[in-house]
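Run log, item B.
One chain of 414 residues. Sequence copied directly from the ordering sheet:
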Amino acid sequence: MKEHLLNSEDARSAAAIQCALDALAPTGGRLVLPELDLELDRGLRLHSGVELVGQGPKTVLRKGPGRVYPLSGYHNYGMADVPLIDAGGLEVGMTVSIHDNRTHGGFYETFATITWIEGNWVGLDHGIEADYSGSEQPCLTTVHPLVWGNHVRGAALRDLHLEGNRAGNAKGMGGCRGAAVYFGNSQDLEITGVTERDYFGEGLGFQMCRDVVVRHCRFDGNTGNGLHPGAGSTNALLEDCAGEGNGRSGFFFCVRANHITLRRGLFRRNQLGVSIGTRDCYNLVEDCEMVDNRGAGILVRQGPQPVEVHSCLIQRCRIEGNALQEGQAQVEIWGEAHDLILADNHIGGGKAGIWVAENARSIFLENNHYSLVHPEVIAGPLGLSYQRPRFEHGYGTAGPTAFRHLERTSQFPH
């Protein structure tokens, strides 16, 4: 693999680092950053086949201040430009987010790169994702991931530290379009040895991705979730990772996050430990710790048929001291969930052990150890099963049909 080592002068700005990343795009390769402490005025975009590597905790990338630029009024879906009241301080190449009060936080928020500026009109590298209403305070913000990639294959991020600087950012980044580290519509990704903290948004997010490996990383003190595989992401392995002190879940399985293995994770002092929801099936959670969270250590969220949670195995975990401020048990199973296995877990330290909603069914419990919880299990007559269900689960078990909803990832422009 071609390797390019940057010195301090080569890595003097985010723009300079981006030029080096862009130079590797045609052939792929590894860009190695020196020890540094650098404030970013734009997110660093990875390309297919390109790795960005630091020197561990001595390579620090910091999110720059997040400014808010009001739009001059209504602007409509698909336009690759926006009119601002004042574009002062913006530059071509910056990464920005655009939304109004109705669209902030979801897929209707726009994340884009500035391509031109003429007066107070700002050009974008793609069309905006929704109509933005003049009566709903539409704005452009210098809010962005610190490192990101869209429609890439074989990219990697390794061995560095990210500072989110949420105090310097008046607006947050929506979890569907961004996170401190973010990938969308991508394949064959590796994230190793990365630590991150204090972002106004989520720590790690990947949406509509497949074949993702994340090892020895932690994402702490963010306003949103710590780690967030979402929107149909399939076949991911997350080992030896942590999410601590986040405003929402330490680990959040989003919609249709399937065939994922979460192993040896630590999720502590978040709102929730691990949250599993809509169509999050065929997943494996093992040898993890969910401790001292304000709500449940494991929450299986509401979900009616046909999008209910099913076919997940949770084993050999320590789930203790949770539900400190909200919730009713260490493990809560809501909605019409079924065919879940909890085996060989240590569950204790407050309120009930496992709570199962009346319309959940076929929850199989085996050899769990309870301490200082009462009652150990709360479930209706149909909630529990005495026959262990059989299903595939986790990373590496997905057959070809498991990826049909991600066909767009078969094309990977740089």
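Observations after the first pass:
- The chain is about 5% helix and 40% strand.
- The helical segments are 14-24.
Flagged for discussion on Thursday.
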